[in-house]
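Q: I'm building a small set of examples for a reading group on sequence design. Run inverse folding on the following structure and report the sequence directly after it, with nothing in between.
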């Protein structure tokens, strides 16, 4: 399984990257056989101004099946 992380409008820190990898391993611990790739797109639309503007889009790509897409917006990336 391949994990790709893309950060937009902020620097991806080792702490955030490690957290994402740890959570993905935990959430997908049941290890679906057909899961090929996880694509994450993280964005901070307001920069340092704060507010609920940190977004995350997760795309799970499966072999022979449609992609599963989940999106959320919160005040922080954790």
């Amino acid at each position: 399984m391949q994990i790709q992380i893309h950060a937009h409008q902020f620097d991806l820190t080792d702490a955030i990257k490690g957290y994402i990898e740890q959570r993905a391993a935990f959430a997908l611990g049941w290890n679906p056989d057909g899961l090929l790739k996880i694509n994450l797109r993280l964005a901070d639309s307001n920069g340092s101004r704060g507010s609920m503007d940190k977004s995350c889009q997760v795309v799970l790509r499966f072999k022979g099946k449609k992609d599963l897409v989940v999106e959320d917006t919160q005040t922080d990336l954790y």
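The first strand starts at residue 2 and ends at 8.
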